[in-house]
């Protein structure tokens, strides 16, 4: 006679499968219910624990400063708007971008997230050439966790600093690096040091109200052209002048009221302003920007260009002051030296 | 008062001259002016060797240190009688020093 032993209901395979199926069906029913959610006239305040939808923001395909400044501004605005969502910045679209635009984007995104690091996702990176430049320029390093600057590239250097006081050596590595490569930089190294240092000093003294005073510096080189870019994301030259309560500030505000901001920016970049200041020896800073360009031009075999961009105005040592499509945050100063041959 | 002091800037002060004021950073023009003032109380002539610098003597530093010192001494000519800044490796430094010491508004 056979004796059948009845297994426990709980341990039987059949019972486990049933439970699993019931659970699956319940989830299906719930998800169907969610889809057919009624539309309310007024939005309901959601709990902060509710998962927010993922936003994907594509980078612009072709960006060149200053013509495409509105694309950069729009892109940064979109990121700012979605910064509290789960955010994906999709770089796959990126095809052409100049160094200044990369620097503006890096500084802008870093500022939006208060220097908090993001996670780099391989799926959303651009093509290899641009990815390499972004890495070299410090874009990934500034924005993402665990991505170090690849300083083995011999054409690009970038650095940044957010201390309250000036780091006297911040510009030394970049300038010395390019001075070794090019005789013109070597010959006028002193003037270049002065120009960049005065830009840093102006930014630390005037551009920021708080203690976080981030400045960026970039140098790039190809056989015919050397470029140095300084950028601070502070309040800009005109806002800083508006707050200046000294005699000098008043004179410049009056000048701006009569002749306009265009002429004021030009005057700031081309004139020794020390005679307008109470403390006579001040007002030399912005002159140093142009001194470097003037002295290189005198050499004869090189052409040099200075561009100072603040608000929606750009002063160029070649074309004077022009309006750009959209305002930038802070002040951007760019020196370019090109061989004539 | 002693006759002359040869002062090596890079060794005694810094290789990277700083901003105008102390509040803006280390090794400022203001800080150096205070040192120079003490030296001028002790010596008739101070000759500063500005060689060995890894950056530059920037305009803010020079005008704060030497421009203001010139004002205190009664003019740039008085300053030049008592102070010299030169570099064995940079011919342009002495001219630059004179230029910024002379800017007094």
What does this entry look like structurally?
The complex is a heterodimer of chains A (341) and B (105). Chain A has 341 residues and is α/β, with parallel strands linked by helices. Chain A has 11 helices and 9 strands. Chain A has helices at 13-35, 69-81, 99-112, 128-137, 139-143, 172-181, 183-187, 189-207, 237-243, 247-270, 285-298, and strands spanning 54-58, 62-63, 86-90, 96-97, 156-161, 215-222, 225-232, 302-316, 320-339. In chain A, the strands form 3 sheets. A 5-stranded antiparallel beta sheet of chain A has the order 5-6-7-9-8, with helices on both faces. The longest helix of chain A is centred in the C-terminal third of the chain and has 24 residues, at 247-270. Chain B is α/β, with parallel strands linked by helices and 105 residues long. In chain B, strands 1-2-3 form a 3-stranded parallel beta sheet. The chains are: A alpha/beta (341), B alpha/beta (105).
Give keywords.
heterodimer, A: 341 residues, alpha/beta, five-stranded antiparallel beta sheet, two-stranded parallel ribbon, 11 helices, B: 105 residues, three-stranded parallel beta sheet, 3 strands, 17% strand
Mean pLDDT of chain A: 81
Low-confidence region ranges of chain B: none
Q: Provide the succession of SSEs of chain B.
A: EHHEHHEH
Number of helical stretches of at least 4 residues of chain B: 5
Oligomer: heterodimer
Strand order of the largest sheet of chain B: 1-2-3
From the N-terminal CA to the C-terminal CA of chain B, the straight-line distance is: 32 Å
Helix content of chain A: 40-55%
Low-confidence stretches of chain A: 38-43
SSE arrangement of chain A, N to C:
HEEHEEHHHEHHHEEHHHEE
Strand order of the largest sheet of chain A: 5-6-7-9-8
E-strand count of chain A: 9
Number of strands of chain B: 3
Please work out how many helical segments of chain A DSSP would assign.
11
Class inferred from helices and paired strands of chain B? alpha/beta
Q: Would you tell me the overall average pLDDT of chain B?
A: 92
Biggest interface between chains = A-B, 29 and 30 residues
**Main beta sheet of chain B, described?**
3 strands, parallel
Strand content of chain A: 15-25%
How widely separated are the two ends of chain A? 108 Å
- Bulk shape of chain B: globular
């Amino acid at each position: 006679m056979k004796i059948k032993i009845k297994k426990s209901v709980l341990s039987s395979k059949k019972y486990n499968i049933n439970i699993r199926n019931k659970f699956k069906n319940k989830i299906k029913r719930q998800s169907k219910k969610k889809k057919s959610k009624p539309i309310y006239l007024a939005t309901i305040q959601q709990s902060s624990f509710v998962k927010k939808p993922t936003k994907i923001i594509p980078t612009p395909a072709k960006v060149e400063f200053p013509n495409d400044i509105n694309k950069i501004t729009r892109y940064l605005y979109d990121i700012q708007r979605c910064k509290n969502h789960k955010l994906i910045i999709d770089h796959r679209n990126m095809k052409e971008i100049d160094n200044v635009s990369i620097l503006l984007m890096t500084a802008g995104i870093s500022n939006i997230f208060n220097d908090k690091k993001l996670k780099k996702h391989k799926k959303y990176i651009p093509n290899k050439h641009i990815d390499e430049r972004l890495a070299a320029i410090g874009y990934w390093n500034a924005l993402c966790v665990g991505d170090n600057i690849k300083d083995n590239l011999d054409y690009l250097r970038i650095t940044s600093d957010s201390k309250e006081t000036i780091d006297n050596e911040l510009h030394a590595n970049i300038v010395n690096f390019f001075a070794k490569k090019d005789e013109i930089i070597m010959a006028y190294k002193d003037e270049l040091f002065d120009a960049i240092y005065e830009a840093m000093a102006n930014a630390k003294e005037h551009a920021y109200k708080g203690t976080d005073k981030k400045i960026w510096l970039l140098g790039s080189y190809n056989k015919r052209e050397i470029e140095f870019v300084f950028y601070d994301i502070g309040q800009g030259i005109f806002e800083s002048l508006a707050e200046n309560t000294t005699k000098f500030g008043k004179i410049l505000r009056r000048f701006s009221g009569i002749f306009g901001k265009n002429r004021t920016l030009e005057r700031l970049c081309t004139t020794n302003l020390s005679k307008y200041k109470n403390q006579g020896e001040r007002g030399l800073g912005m002159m140093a920007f142009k001194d470097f360009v003037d002295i290189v031009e005198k050499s004869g075999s090189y052409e040099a260009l200075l561009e100072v961009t603040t608000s929606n105005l750009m002063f160029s040592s070649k074309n004077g002051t022009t309006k750009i499509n959209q305002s930038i945050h802070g002040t951007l100063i760019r020196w370019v030296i090109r061989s004539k041959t | 008062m002693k006759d002359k002091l040869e002062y090596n800037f890079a060794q005694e002060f810094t290789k990277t001259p700083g901003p105008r004021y102390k509040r803006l950073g280390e090794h400022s023009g203001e800080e150096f002016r205070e040192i120079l003032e003490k030296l001028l109380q002790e010596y008739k002539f101070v000759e500063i060797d500005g060689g060995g610098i890894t950056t530059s003597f920037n305009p803010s530093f020079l005008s704060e240190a030497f421009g203001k010192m010139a004002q205190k001494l009664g003019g740039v000519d008085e300053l030049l009688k008592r102070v010299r800044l030169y570099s064995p490796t940079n011919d342009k430094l002495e001219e630059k020093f004179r230029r910024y010491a002379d800017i007094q508004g």
